[in-house]
């Protein structure tokens, strides 16, 4: 598997990239190549007196590269200029990546409603699964909030086709997952899931599949606002990562992320793994 790892070369990014446990988790799920990408935004001028931004970034990436190669990965580095999320997505498509990874400082002090613009734009536009890697806020020496990325997964499903696609990520996540919580939120007045069986039965069928991979599985059926209840389930079960599908309702998916997915990315305490719909060719 190939993964694009986007970094802004901050102390927070360094904590994520150089955390041995995090790298081990990526190796367990089959990642063999890491493509480190840092983007010099268009509004940072190459001719800033006395500063060569691209040279400084290449030097920093070489230090990261050595650490990651020592952990057993093949590494490529890219210093590019442009709009960060567009360049990161472009490289992911160019190398046919299996996933992208971006660090996020987590909950915002502004009522937990804001996340970094690059993270938000990647969540809305990524055409490959995106891991939002949560990093501590308000500290000079930040660490990952959850170093064992996939050890305890919370999977939220509305039984849609894209939720099913997100569930299939367990085919590789299972090599690093020990516990899984399966969550479905029933909205009052809404129709039931498509297909046969009630939610409890359908979650039980999914649980059987995961238990075949020797996971400990918990089922949690809730009622209310999907985003609020999924976040409440995260608080209750304390997963290391929440797995969701981002559901595209129209061709405007690249501009509009489903409100549930966006709320989870913005407000989850731990990591979030977003699986987009299949590409339309």
Annotate the secondary structure layout.
Layout: E1 2-6, H1 11-17, H2 20-28, E2 33-41, H3 53-70, E3 74-82, H4 84-94, E4 99-104, H5 117-125, E5 130-134, E6 152-156, H6 161-167, H7 170-173, E7 179-186, H8 199-211, E8 216-223, H9 226-237, E9 241-245, H10 259-267, E10 271-275
Report on the architecture of this protein.
With 281 residues, the chain is α/β, with parallel strands linked by helices. It has two domains: 2-134, Rossmann fold (3-Layer(aba) Sandwich); 152-275, 3-Layer(aba) Sandwich (Rossmann fold), CATH 3.40.50.620. It is 35% helix and 23% strand. It has ten helices and ten strands. It has helices spanning 11-17, 20-28, 53-70, 84-94, 117-125, 161-167, 170-173, 199-211, 226-237, 259-267; strands at residues 2-6, 33-41, 74-82, 99-104, 130-134, 152-156, 179-186, 216-223, 241-245, 271-275. It has a ten-stranded mixed beta sheet, sandwiched between helices. Helix 10 links the parallel strand 9 and strand 10. Helix 4 crosses helix 5 and helix 9 (226-237) runs parallel beside helix 10. It is globular. The model is unreliable at 107-115 and 248-257 (pLDDT under 50). Belongs to the universal stress protein A family. This is UspA domain-containing protein. Residues 2-132, 150-276 form the UspA domain. Pfam families: Usp. InterPro entries: Rossmann-like_a/b/a_fold (IPR014729), Universal_stress_UspA (IPR006015), UspA (IPR006016).
